[in-house]
């Protein structure tokens, strides 16, 4: 009886040691598994649902079955005038806003890196807009643009200039949204450019200075080529983010006036919740997704070829 108990005890010990060794070998996988499962659940289900909804006509009445339409929702994109307006506005906003943010961010980074490198407090202040929630930024600029009591029109009044409707003017609405977006996201470009400048080697600049190269020539021949990878990442991230602009437009203009600021994300929202056409909204979302993927792939290939 004692021998049997000892044999059982040894078997349990061997099993425990084997389990312990297995846990040690797979500890990293076990630690990551819960997070990976949660992320997959939160990512895969909405993606599958969106693909499935994009090929169906979904009635707002939950008692009615979904009607399979195949590529019908995607074919509607070709003849939908409102979609074409939203696409044009999105492209205009993305090009103008990202260009302005890049030029300002790079300029500020060059200025602070060369002349006021030690003023850490100033760098922190410049990054504050980027750390604010987008909804807070939108409400702040809505107050600034307020026609009667806004700060901007108060300044215009004191300077003797005509007051403007800003976000309510068809000719100024897109410009107003671009200004607000540039104010918020220029610090992002500035931060990446400043980090890139801090990592540049010193030796090529010393050699160029000895050869008599001007600061402008050093910028074009050394700084820009060295910063190309950082510039590519910064522009790619900002373009991808600009294509899904929603908060500023929704709060400042609501897509108006006269659809001058209606962008794709806002149009998806209107189609899904105002017109209750979930299938078509899913098709527009997939179009934006595939367009972003294609643009990103093309951009990265161009950057590799340029190198």
UniProtKB/TrEMBL annotation:
Keyword Glycosyltransferase found: no
Superkingdom of the organism of origin: Bacteria
Protein known as: Sugar ABC transporter permease
Occurrences of domain ABC transmembrane type-1 (ranges): 87-299
Chief localization: membrane
Residue intervals passing through the bilayer: 29-52, 91-112, 124-144, 182-202, 222-240, 280-300
Family: Belongs to the binding-protein-dependent transport system permease family.
Topological type in the membrane: Multi-pass membrane protein
Naturally occurring in which organism (per UniProt): Phyllobacterium brassicacearum
This protein's UniProt keywords: Cell membrane, Membrane, Transmembrane, Transmembrane helix, Transport
GO (cellular component) term, any one: plasma membrane
Alphabetized Gene3D superfamilies for the sequence: MetI-like
Record keyword Magnesium present: no
CDD domains in alphabetical order: TM_PBP2 (cd06261)
Pfam families per record: BPD_transp_1
GO BP term, example: transmembrane transport
